[in-house]
Amino acid sequence: MRSGQKELKKLYLISGDEPLLVQEARDAIFIAAKQIGFSEKETVYVDSGFQVDTLTSLLYNASLFGDKKIIDLRNPAAKFDATLTACLQYYLEGTITDRVLIITTEKLTLTQQKSMWLAVIKKYGIFMPIQPIDVNALPKWIMERAKKSGVILSIEMATIIAAGCEGNLLAAQQMIEKLSLLFPHTEINKTQLMSVLADHARFTIFDLSDAITKKNSKKMVRIVSRLQQMGEEPTLILWAICQQLRKHNNKKTLQKAAYVDEIIKGGKPGDTWQALLELCL
User: Fold this and answer.
1) Does the structure show a pLDDT above 80 at 194?
2) 3 has a pLDDT exceeding 50
3) What integer pLDDT is reported at residue 196 of this predicted model?
4) In this structure, are 164 and 71 located in the same domain?
5) What is the mean predicted confidence (pLDDT) over 218-237?
6) Are 93 and 75 part of one and the same domain?
7) I need a surface site. Which of 29, 34, 186, 251 has the fewest CB within 10 A?
């Protein structure tokens, strides 16, 4: 180990329900391991066909060229039976130095947090619980991420992104990346932000179709409001709504849709966006 380098632990457990943060934590370990010679990586999934022998083989069988290896064990449900726990304990208590095991799970339940297998991991390895970003802290988080990408966002712009992404960190990060490509080293104004949001509007229309199918009224209200803010064409939204109505052969509501169409065209009195929302509901 060269001076200034931190020695890696033999096992890391990353647990959380935020895919972006989980992936970034995993990538950070990959990068650190690669810097000290871990050139191979094997990914194993704990599913119905998983055998502990597969993991054991990867941990103890030397590779053809004797390379150091990262083992990426994806275990979403955090299923650790006695056999797997024993395998991990034997590995952790052993003298192997050319393997790094990274285990990824969803957020652990209270029962899992008190389990024997977690106690074993905590004793010898590193437990990395990933905390979600509180909704009130999300705009600031977006501002900080944007700054690292060379984009300056005011609290107002960051709040708009947070509302549009509905707490989805991956969606927020994708928005930041797009802004950095289109407007590098720039303080983003509302016109620029709305142009990027509008570029995603057609996908949001299909989200509206999905919300109608699932009868998620709260989400319908949010999506219609967002589409209005982004200046989306009401006719296109009406088309998406009618597609769902036809699937359910809802003739009465289709007649209402014809009336909404007249409102959009100016042939009948009424508020276009309110009429669209009422049609959804």
Assistant:
1) yes
2) no
3) 81
4) no
5) 78
6) yes
7) 251
Q: Which domain does 264 fall in, by range? A: 201-280
User: Which range (107-111, 196-200, 237-241) has the least confidence?
Assistant: 196-200
Rounded to the nearest integer, the mean pLDDT of the chain is: 85
* Rounded-to-integer distance, Cα 90 and Cα 275, Å: 65
**How distant is the alpha carbon of residue 78 from its chain centre?**
19
Beta strands 151-152 and 68-74 are unpaired
Give the length of the chain. Answer: 281
Name 269's Cβ contacts closer than 8 Å, sequence gap at least 6: 263
Question: What global pTM score does this model have?
Answer: 0.67
Residue 188 included in any domain: yes
The CA angle 63-69-72, to the nearest 5 degrees, is 125
CATH number of the domain that residue 144 is part of: 1.10.8.60
Helix H or strand E segment including 85: helix 82-93
Residue 23 resides in a domain:
yes
Distance of CA 147 to the CA centre of its chain: 20
> DSSP per residue over 187-217, as a string?
E--HHHHHHHHHHTHHHHHHHHHHHHHTT-H
pLDDT at residue 2, as a whole number: 43
How far, CA to CA in Å, does 125 sit from each of 11, 77, 80, 89, 95? 5, 20, 16, 10, 14
Number of structural domains the chain divides into: 3
The answer to whether residue 3 is domain-embedded is no
Are 120 and 92 spatial neighbours (Cβ–Cβ below 8 Å)? Answer: yes
Q: For residues 204 and 153, what is the distance between their CA atoms, to the nearest angstrom? A: 23
CA 233: distance to chain centroid? 29
Query: Can you give the pLDDT at residue 199?
Result: 63
**Token output for 239:** 């088309």
Sequence-separated (6 or more) residues with CB below 8 Å from residue 108: 15, 78, 118, 129
